[in-house]
Amino acid sequence: MKRILLSLSASVTMLLLASPLAMAADGEGLYGRTNDKVITFFCFGVIIFFTVFVIGMSILQHRLETRKDRARADIERLRKP
Which residues, 6+ apart, have CB-to-CB distance to 31 below 8 Å? Predict the structure, then answer.
């Protein structure tokens, strides 16, 4: 187990150390040259994503909770003689 953890931590460390060198060429990332407009729109996208994600997960949780409560009520209704 120690060998696996040591190997995994060494691999992650090497990847983290090598990633800036692999992804940067003369100050350009994967997208290319960026300006304030690109950064602003990306940040707006992040804000919108997390807003939609939180709302969607809340709706999903509400539906699952009501389903659970309905199932509990059915079990209690059937359990009573």
Answer: 38
Ramachandran category for residue 24: left, alpha or beta (phi over 0 → left; psi -120 to 50 → alpha): beta
Tokens of 28: 């350009």
Cβ(23)–Cβ(29) below 8 Å: yes
What is the value of pTM for the model shown?
0.58
The token duo for 52 is: 């939609």
pLDDT digit string (tens) for the chain, length 81 residues: 889 999 999 999 988 887 766 666 666 766 777 889 989 999 999 999 999 999 999 999 999 999 999 999 999 988 876
27 phi and psi angles, rounded to 5 deg: 80, 5
